[in-house]
Amino acid sequence: MAVLIDGKAISAQIQEELKEKVSVLRNKGVEITLAVIQVGSDPASCVYVRNKKRACENIGIRSLTYELPVETTEKQLLKLIEELNGRTDVNGILVQLPLPEQIDEAMVIQKIDPQKDVDGFHLRNVGALCSGQNGFVPCTPAGIMQLLKRSGIEVAGKECVVVGRSNIVGKPMALLLLQENGTVTVAHSKTEDLKAVTRRADILIVAVGKPKMITREYVKEGAAVIDVGIHRNEQNKLCGDVDFADVEPVCKAITPVPGGVGPMTIAMLMNNCVESVL
Ligand code: GUN
User: Fold this and answer.
1) From atom 11 of ligand 1, which residue's Cα is the shortest distance away?
2) CA 80, CA 66: separation in Å to the nearest integer?
3) What angle do CA 12, 147, 54 make, to 5 degrees?
4) CA 164, 170, 175 angle in degrees (round to 5)?
């Protein structure tokens, strides 16, 4: 039986630690404010934004929400960001993705003051991560590093395989594992003989966006498996990129979906908000 890596419990623990830090800061007269911008009403984005606001309330961070109509222009959005960049009472700015097609996402991200970019998507923060300097780290991969650390899973010297190469998860994940001295491979949809590559992994991180794609043939016995995917199956139940029932018996540790990586993303967003005032 594999150890179940309880992201919900670890996220709650981190949020308790942050609550304490926020309270110490408040006693010193420091308030933290996160501005959350959502354009349109994509149902998944609505859920994420609501959860982010709730987490802010829970740990004592003030949140300002901007719900803009789907037809908002790029110019209007950029103007709002500029205004928030200039406000000394706003410490973090988060633009929920995806944005409607008339808006250039890359352009919008570059407009955010890198010191308020709590998502860690601005090129300045991406560059800092690439070169091992201080900056905001994207929340999902940062959360996965915490899951590994707090579950006692050693990265140094281990074979780490990341499946998926997105800017938000795969690429920063690989950099963080490398920083902790993992031996890192990034596999993707064009990788030849993917099973042979993933079977090398002591730590297998899956962010492919395909429900239950990773079955036990992809997994080395005794590996730790981290599932970033989240999907609804035919029965409207949540599942990940990993076929949990099939893989769980062969691995050493595994994250469930829901309750694995998901809650960690929010905890690390809150962590970045606290860091924005330090
Ligand atoms: N959409 C899906 N994941 C994320 C995220 O981590 N940050 C933002 N801003 N949008 C997202």
Assistant:
1) 97
2) 9
3) 30
4) 140
What are 210-219's pLDDT values in tens digits?
Answer: 999 999 999 9
What pLDDT score was predicted for residue 234? 86
Residue 221 C-alpha to ligand 1 middle, in angstroms? 33
Q: How far apart are CA 244 and CA 210, in angstroms?
A: 13
Query: Which residues are designated catalytic?
Result: 52, 96, 119
Check residue 76 and give its pLDDT: 98
Q: How far is the CA of 275 from the centre of ligand 1 (A)?
A: 18
Torsion of the alpha carbons at 247, 250, 251 and 253, rounded to the nearest 10 = 80
Q: Give the ligand 1 atom nearest the CA of 97.
A: 10
pLDDT at 28: 98
Q: Of 225, 199, 229, whose CA–CA distance to 213 is shortest?
A: 229
159 forms bridges with which residues in the sheet? 183
Mean pLDDT of the region 250-271:
98
pTM of the model: 0.97
Quick one: what percent of the chain has pLDDT higher than 90?
99
| CB 96 less than 6 A from any atom of ligand 1 | yes
- Residue 117, ligand 1, Cβ within 6 A: no
52 pLDDT band, cuts 50/70/90, is very high
Beta-sheet strands, E only, within 99-212: 159-163, 183-187, 203-206
pLDDT at 134: 97
Closest CA to 253 of 164, 156, 147: 147
255 backbone dihedrals φ, ψ, rounded to 5°: -95, 140
How far apart are the C-alpha atoms of 103 and 150, rounded to whole Å?
39
